[in-house]
Structure formats: C-alpha cells, structure tokens
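Human:
Focus on the backbone:
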Amino acid sequence: MAESTQLQFIWKQISERAQNLITPISYDHLIKDLEPFDISGRKLILKCSSELNATSIMNKFADKMREAIVKSDCGVNDFRLYVEGSNIYTLDSDDDFAEIFQASPINKGFTFDSFVVSHGTKLVYAAAKAVAEAPGESFNPLFIYGESGLGKTHLLHAIANELAQNAPEKKVLYTTCENFLNEFIDSIAQKSGARFRLHYRNVDVLMIDDIQFLKNKTQVQEEFFHTFNELSAQNKQIVLTSDRPPKEIATLEERLRTRFEGGMIADIQPPSPETKIAILKRKALDRKCSLPDDVLEFLARDSGHDVRTLEGRLTKVIFASKLHEEPISLQLAKLALSESVNESEEQEDVTPEKIVAAVCSYFKQKREDLLGKGKKADLVKARQICAYLMCEMLSLPLVSVGNILGGRDHTTIMYARDKMEKLAKLNDKLAKEIDDIKNIVLKK
C-alpha cells in the first residue's frame, strides 16, 4: 500500500483541480469527503462513504475527475472508487470494468434534421421526437419496428444526439441486443453481475437496437425483465427497435411481450417513390452536389425498400462523375450502374467464403479467430476489412454479413463498413491492402 503522506499529496493536487471543474454544490456533496486509500498500477483508489454517492460520481463526474488527474500530472492516470462492505465498489474490482461494459458509438450525423419524414414515418418520427424532448413522460416504452435499412437505428441515434445537446445531464445508453447478450454472458463468466446491472440500470434513457434477438434466450430475458421493471418504476425512458412487432417475436416471454406492448408501438414504413427522391436529394446535399430530376427518378426506380441500397446507388454515380470528370447526367448514371452490374456478373464466382479465406491468408489469421470474439487490434482490423469487402463486392445485406461473421449485429457491420470506407480514403497503406485482398479473391 502506498504511504499515507504520498497519497495525501497526490489527492491534494487532484482535488484542487477538480474543485475548479465541478460545481461547488456537487463538489462539497460528493467529492470533498473522498479519501485517498491506495494506488493500484497507475490508478488512485478513493474511499467513498456510500454506493449511492459512488454511483453518482461515476455517472456524472468521472470525466471531470479524469481531467483533474491529467492536469495534476502527479503520476496516476485514472481513479477507482472503493466503498467498505460493497459488492460493487470493491478493492478487487476489475480494472477493465469500463472497457467490459460500453455503450455503442453514436453516429453524430444521424439527427432528426437529417431524417427525411414521409407519410409512412410521420408517426414514428413524432414519437421519437417526443421522447427526446421529455424522456420518461410519454411513450414509455417506445417500440419501433420495421424492415432493415428503413431508419430505425437513425432515430435511436437522433434521440441520443438531441439529448446530448439539450439535456447533457441525462445519462443515455444506446447499445445493440447483441452487445447486451455478450456482456451478460461475460458478466456471468467474470462474476461481475452486480456491475452489469449497475451499468444498465443507472441510466436515464436506455435504447436497445434489434431486441428481437432476445428470442430463445431464457436467462437473458429474465435479466432484461428485471432491468425493464427497475427503469420503468423510476420513470426512466426505454426505447427498443425490432424487425417485427412484439407479438411476432417467437419464444418471447409473455410478461416481456405485455410490457413491450404497454407503451407506444410504431412501425416504420418503406419509402414511397417520392420519399426516395427526397432522401436522394438530402444525401446529395450532404455531399455538396445536386442531381437532375431525371437522374433522381432513375436512381429511385427499382431500388427496393432499403435506404442503404438507395445511398449505394447514389455513391456509385457520384464516384463515376469524379472518375470521368463529367457532370452528373442520366447517361452517366446509367453507365455507372451498368458498370456495377457488369462487375457483379464478372464476379459471380465471388463468395463470402472466398473473401474470408483471402482475408485470413493475407493477414495470417485463423478462420475461427476471425469469426470469433477476439478483440486484438490486428484481428479486429482484418474482421472489419472482411465486412467491408462483403458489403462492397457482394452487396450483401448487413444482417447477412453479420450472420456470416460469427453472428454479429448489423449495426456492428455498418460501423465496420463505414469505418473502412473512410479510412481507405485517408490511408494509402490500408487502401493498398484492400486492393490486394480484392485481387486475391478475384483470382481464386
């Protein structure tokens, strides 16, 4: 254990800076009475009087405390709380707790302003907007359902972004059902069930994407039932999405089904031709370009219901315009999409398995590791490139790619696809690696 005088000196440096970052009332009520207890690694362990105070500090002031630690420059780089007699804030707490339980990232571009409202989405948009303006007061839970690619995830992120701007004091947790399942399993394996419950129940707004994956998971349904009840009893907002309404989720416990149906159920309808054109105009505007009406109508025609497919067609046309150094016209649009069709015909022999094999060979990874849960940086990079190539070379739905890559959630695949697409434009080495793997796939 570190010497008392050393601990007091370090804590004095940190607390003085924390006092300038945290409001006087909060500092006097929560921070002032913390006592330096020990140092573990480079983390300062602070003794707190109660679990309630410790939870309030971690929920509201953890970032401010870490900022104070950085500014103090006194040899530690983080802190941990200890409450005597607690099963949560213990001396042998897992130092990686913050890394084990994490919310999924929020896309800053998914806002209410960027969502194109149509006749088929007017109701669900209004409900999501109402939740963002007054969480817990109406439509609780809000249950949004519809086919993949219609904007359910967009609305969840829009709620999170709206609350971050207008009610930053609210603790918002967005995650996928896949993450909830995996973290629940990890909490059992690591005997950290109390921390798991703390993570999901000490929030103001809980949003879970693709809740239909709770089906056939009896033990997880039991855990979510209690989480739902506790949040609901405190008037905390719950927002769920699914590809089908509650009554059509097979093997969903009746007590969960009735709770899902106890709030607002809103379906999100496929876009009409007019809505598709409006979406194309908005997406084109975001990319600082405009399209003639005949091109908009051409792209909207026979594009299916998936908005992502619509955006993919737009991307091909914009890329063709830059490649050929020509303004966007109907002729160019037809050429761009016909080239895409020809490429797919030439690549009929390309299969997901060939892409997996090529990525494994190139990065010298085992197939079972690529499809598994390993999180080493080189393995994650290979897996994300694999997801990107399946989306680009085969135009597979995100859900299908996720199933191929070890049963991952479609939002995980979307994140990997978008990340690799952006990085490849900035990183020549990564772009070359992707091209090399493409060539391996096409030569097989």
